[in-house]
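Quick question, first post here. What does this chain look like in 3D?
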Amino acid sequence: MAEELGPCPRCGRPLAPDYRVNARHPATGQWAVMQIVICPGGIHAWSRWTDDTAGAGGWAVGGRGGNEAHRSGQAGTEAEPLVEVRDWSAIRAYRRVPPSKLRSDLTSAVKEIGLLKVHKSTGFKEIVQWAIDNLPQAAPNHPRSAEAKAMATYYWRHR
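> Answer (accepted):
Ran it through. Tokens below.
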């Protein structure tokens, strides 16, 4: 039985589940499932928290005894409203990349594009700021331009 997710609030296309994680809800502290749903093609991404811990693929909370059983018994199955997730495609692509590799890949991409002279004394934050601010206008047709901007944006916002 497929879960009815409804249309995307932005474009109206049907949403599809993309990612689920079991974690403690940031507001309530109760165990919950955080789900990311996306439009076809990953144009828009939305997250929501549900209390559906029982239906989370056999995952069970243990070690807390009656207190956890009481909280689990109080949990409903109502889903929270959808909240837009900025940069989900970049987060998904780079969240498991070590910072040193991200720095190396971004620096080599900027060197390959060749519009910013990168020396040993060039600070990495200068490279990141340049890639975010100037790269889209300076080299819109370069094949690595979009990749370099995505890496820089991910590093700036999430590292």
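Confidence is low (pLDDT under 50) at residues 55-59, 70-77.
The longest strand covers residues 16-24.
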